[in-house]
Write a structure and sequence with these properties.
Elements (H helix, E strand, L loop, with lengths): L6 E3 L2 E3 L25 H19 L11 H21 L2 H9 L10 H12 L2 E5 L5 H9 L2 E5 L16 H8 L6 H16 L3 H16 L2 E4 L2 E4 L2 H4 L4 H7 L4 E4 L2 H5 L11 E5 L2 H15 L5
Parallel strand pairs: 3-4, 5-8, 7-8
Antiparallel strand pairs: 1-2, 5-6
The protein binds fe (ii) ion.
The site of fe (ii) ion has 6 residues, from helix 6 and helix 9.
Length: 298
């Protein structure tokens, strides 16, 4: 890919440097319009979990054991059964089996520490406690070391089916189960290594889009049917039917060149979906891309 002075992301020009120089956010920031903003108790709890998870991340202590509040458990018990029902019908088999193997259920919020130990035995991936969404270069640096950053807070109770940021429901019910699959684990690790190594912002952006249209919003073919495996879809009761059936969305075969040149808007329901024929296919496509970019990580 040609070096350019500006890149387009989310419809606007960005400085390529922002793709390779990670920012560090050291205090909790809830974005304008966040449903929890006016709720002092919620903000206080988020600050407490922010400080705890940040310390555990920076000191390499692994996920802290969290005593979840009654309100947090209520939110989990409200949202996860609705997602489970949709998963049974529309999620890919890799996801369904892994969720069962990890004993993720509708009653109790899982402890990420236990899940991390199980993942480590299965695919040598461990979970890294994250205080919130990390800058993607930082995120990729953890992934390159086979660590997957996960949040441990819950969304605000006034809108249990909506979150403007990744939370425990998104991470634990979306991202974590597929980490039990070896091809998925290797795909993810390679994205991390390549994105954390290249000095070129345009290549980081291309890898970010590859990841977005697979890990985050990917569809996959399974026994002649289209199934869901992207975490952003699996953790949203709206995105699951939207991704598979909406007339306002396109569903095209996963062609790497098209995927890495397709912009997206993370704040809206997605309008472009790509269907991968299999997990090994994605892994091979990524290896070819990294090779073509000349990133020395293979
Ligand atoms: Fe995500």
């Amino acid at each position: 890919m040609k070096e350019t002075n500006t890149l387009i992301e989310y419809g606007t020009s960005i400085d390529p440097n922002t793709m390779v120089v990670p920012l560090d956010v050291s205090e909790l920031e809830l974005e304008p319009g966040h449903p929890g903003l006016g709720d002092t108790e919620y903000v206080h709890r988020r600050q407490e979990l922010f400080a705890l998870c940040r310390r555990h991340r920076l000191e390499h202590l692994g996920p802290p054991t969290i005593e979840y509040t009654a309100e947090e458990t209520r939110i989990w018990r409200e949202v996860s059964p609705k997602l489970h029902e949709l998963h049974d019908k529309y999620a890919c088999s890799i996801y369904l089996k892994a969720k069962q193997d990890l004993a993720i259920n509708e009653t109790e919020i899982p402890q990420l520490r236990t899940i991390s130990e199980r993942l480590e035995r299965e695919t040598n991936i461990h979970l890294v406690p994250a205080e919130g969404a990390l800058p993607y270069r930082t995120f990729y640096e953890y992934i390159a070391e086979r660590g997957f950053p996960v949040t441990q807070f819950l969304r605000h109770g006034s809108h249990p089916e909506f979150t403007p940021e990744p939370d425990m429901i998104h991470d634990c019910l979306g991202h974590v189960p597929p980490l039990m699959n070896q091809d998925y684990a290797e795909l993810l690790t390679l994205i991390g290594k390549a994105a954390a190594t290249t000095p070129h912002g345009d290549q980081v952006l291309a890898l970010k889009r590859f990841s977005w249209f697979s890990i985050e919003f990917g569809l996959i073919e399974e026994a002649g049917e289209t199934k869901v495996f992207g975490a952003g879809i699996l953790s949203s009761t709206g995105e699951i039917p939207h991704s598979l059936f909406s007339k306002d969305a396109t569903r095209r075969p996963f062609v790497t060149e098209t995927v890495i040149t397709t912009d997206y808007d993370p704040s809206q329901m997605q309008k472009d979906f790509f269907i991968a024929p299999s997990m090994p296919f994605l892994r091979r496509e990524l290896e070819a891309l990294v090779h073509r970019f000349g990133i020395p990580v293979l």
